[in-house]
Amino acid sequence: MLILQTVEELKEWVHETKKAGQTIGIVPTMGFLHEGHLSLVEKAKEENDKVVMSIFVNPAQFGPNEDFDRYPRNLVRDQQLAKKVGTDVIFAPSVDEMYPRDSSIKLTAGTLAHVLCGAKRPGHFDGVLKVVTKLFHLTEANRAYFGQKDAQQLAIIESLVADFNFSISIRRGQTVREQDGLAKSSRNVYLSDVERNEALHLKKALEIGKTLFLKKQDPVEPMISYLTEHTSGKIDYIELLGYPSLTKTIQNDVILALAVQFEKARLIDNLIFNPKEN
Predict the structure, then answer these.
(1) To which CATH superfamily is domain 2-173 assigned?
(2) What is the pLDDT of residues 62-92, one digit of tens each?
(3) Each residue's pLDDT tens digit, 210-220
(4) Range(s) of the chain covered by CATH 3.40.50.620
(5) Which segments in the chain show pLDDT lower than 50?
(6) Where are the alpha helices (DSSP H) in 215-256?
(7) Distance between CA atoms of 124 and 58, rounded to whole angstroms?
(8) One of 15, 37, 201, 230 is an active-site residue; which one?
(9) What are the C-alpha distances in Å from 265 to residues 96, 184, 233, 262?
C-alpha cells in the first residue's frame, strides 16, 4: 500500500494506473476509520482494479464553532486498517497541499443544503463540494463511494455529478451499525458511557417513526417524545422528506432523518425506504 501526501505524487500514480488501463475507485474520508469506511473499500475493491482512500480532515466544511481542531485523528491506525482491507493508495495531504491558495471561485450546494444538517451548518456542504471536486479531478476515479448515513451529503454529491456531467459514478454504501443498532461514526468516541447507552435509542426512534408513517400517521411528535424520554441529548431536528430530492414532495424513496446533540458529540442517523415496498 502506498502513502501519498502530495498532489504531484498522486497525479503521477493516477497517470501510470490509467496508462495501464486500470480502473480507480475512491473512498473519501476524514480518517479515524471504522467499519463503515472499510465496507466502502471492500465494495470498491469488487468494482475497480485499484482503490484510493483519501484521509483529509477538511477545514472547508467546518464552521467557526465546530470541532475541526479536536476531530479525532490517528493516521498510523488508519493506515493499518486500510491496508487490511486491501486499499492500494492512501492520499493524506496537508491542508496547505490541498488548498495552496485562496480561491474566489465557490461551489454552493443550493436548496439541497437548506434542510436537515445544512440548515444548522451554513457553508458545510459548500466545503464538502469543494473537497470532493478536487478529489474527483485529482484521482480521475471511475467510481466514488459514500455511506448512506451521511444521506444529505450523498444526495448533494449525486446532484453535483449529475448537474455538471462528471465522468464518475457515485456508489452508495449501506449504513454500518454496532450490534445494538448505533450507526458507526468517528464522533462516537466523544460519547460518555451513559450517552453511549442512550444513543442506541436513535435507531429505535427511527423505527418507531417508520412504522407510524407507513400507518399514515405523523411520526415526528411520537419520535420527539421517545427521544426526550430515553436520552439526555438535545434534538436538533427530525424530518421526513422525499429522497434524494430532500423536498416535501414524495415520489418514491423517503428519508426519515434525525440529529441529536449530546454534550460533546452531535449524532445523525436516518432510514431511507420506499413506502410502496413496505
Answers:
(1) HUPs (3.40.50.620)
(2) 998 888 998 999 999 999 999 999 999 999 9
(3) 999 999 999 99
(4) 2-173
(5) none
(6) 220-230
(7) 10
(8) 37
(9) 27, 13, 9, 5
Is 53 one of the annotated binding-site residues? Answer: no
Total-model pTM: 0.95
Alpha carbon distance 149, 36 (integer Å): 9
pLDDT at 277: 86
Known binder of ligand: residue 34? yes
216 C-beta neighbours (distance < 10 Å), count: 7
In the chain, residues under CATH classification 3.30.1300.10 are 186-272
Query: Does residue 37 carry a catalytic annotation?
Result: yes
User: Which fold, 186-272?
Assistant: Pantoate--beta-alanine Ligase; Chain: A,domain 2 (3.30.1300)
150 a known binding residue?
yes
Matching residue, cell 450517552: 195
pLDDT of the residue at 232: 97
Instruction: Confirm whether residue 186 is marked as ligand binding.
Output: yes
Determine if residue 147 is labeled as part of a ligand binding site. yes
